[in-house]
């Protein structure tokens, strides 16, 4: 498993967090054009950029989006190569988490349908199945892995398990701070949290209410099952059919399921 603090050199390179002059000149095609565009943007807005060892400045994820945030939702766009690197890393985190828990629980084999349906805890009214137990363990490992990777390169561009509420304007969801959440729970006002959502990971422009991508890890059990969004309770404030709908209504962007088999809308 990738532990927090682990360096991910290839990801840092892919995300444009350390390209020296000679290295950039050695690239060609779309990648070189992307770096040249990034350098140009940094010359105009140096505050958004991180200096490399060679004193060259390049744009981290979503800087270009932040620069044009006044123009509607154009800040939703993310450089294709950067997004590809993120997607590959998140899928790799899902695979690592899946393999590690399967190794611990089953000696490396995948859980069977019987393993998944077996009740392993909880109560008669609220049983915990093998699928639930395995999912929780895999979720925790995958999120730690993702946080380590993104934390090295995009420390100010992502949030893990952050609660949001749909805003009065679809483009700007309201961030519910952890302290606010605790205060409501301590006051016995948990009903005030109805209609809020807590994605596994979100990417933003540097402004947490300008959410660009929404990701949730899913670990189908058995792994031959298709990945699906959790169903929303009837009468929910958002009138959402499922978790994915709730994210879409809150953030105005299509959320993505991250699984060991890949990503799914």
Question: Key terms for this structure?
Answer:
single chain, about 260 residues, alpha+beta, three-stranded antiparallel beta sheet, 9 helices, 12 strands, globular, disordered N terminus, Lipoprotein
Describe the SSE topology.
Layout: H1 9-14, H2 21-25, H3 29-44, E1 50-51, E2 57-58, H4 63-67, H5 80-106, H6 113-117, E3 119-122, E4 127-129, H7 130-153, E5 158-160, E6 163-165, E7 174-176, H8 178-186, E8 196-197, E9 201-204, E10 211-217, H9 243-251, E11 256-259, E12 262-264
Parallel strand pairs: 10-11
Antiparallel strand pairs: 1-2, 3-4, 5-9, 6-7, 6-8, 9-10, 11-12
Written description of the protein model:
The chain is α+β, with helices and mostly antiparallel strands and 265 residues long. The protein has a domain at 80-264. The protein has 9 helices and 12 strands. It has a 5-stranded mixed beta sheet, sandwiched between helices. The radius of gyration is 20 Å and the shape is globular. Residues 1-71 have low confidence and may be disordered.
């Amino acid at each position: 498993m990738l532990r927090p603090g682990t360096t991910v050199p290839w990801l840092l390179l892919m995300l444009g967090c350390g390209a020296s002059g000679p290295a950039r000149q050695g690239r060609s095609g779309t990648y070189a054009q992307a770096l040249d565009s990034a350098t140009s943007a940094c010359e105009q807005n140096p505050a958004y950029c991180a200096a490399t060892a060679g004193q060259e400045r390049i744009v981290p994820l979503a800087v270009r989006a932040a620069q044009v945030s006044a123009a509607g939702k154009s800040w939703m766009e993310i450089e294709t190569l950067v997004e590809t690197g993120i997607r590959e890393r998140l899928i790799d985190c899902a695979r690592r988490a899946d393999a590690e828990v399967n190794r611990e629980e089953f000696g490396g084999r995948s859980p069977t349908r019987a393993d998944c349906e077996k009740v392993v805890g909880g109560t008669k009214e609220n049983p915990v199945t093998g699928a639930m137990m395995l999912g929780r363990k895999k979720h925790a490992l995958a999120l730690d892995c993702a946080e380590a990777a993104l934390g090295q390169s995009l420390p100010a561009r992502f949030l893990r398990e952050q609660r949001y509420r749909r805003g009065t304007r679809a483009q700007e969801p309201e961030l519910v701070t952890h302290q606010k959440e605790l205060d409501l729970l301590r006051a016995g006002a948990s009903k005030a949290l109805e209609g809020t959502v807590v994605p596994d990971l979100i990417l933003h422009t540097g402004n947490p209410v300008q959410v660009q991508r929404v990701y949730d890890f899913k670990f189908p059990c058995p792994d031959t099952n298709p990945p699906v969004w959790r169903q929303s309770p009837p009468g929910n404030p958002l009138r959402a059919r499922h978790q994915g709908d709730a994210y879409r209504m809150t953030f105005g962007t299509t959320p993505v399921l991250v699984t060991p088999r890949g990503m799914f809308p």
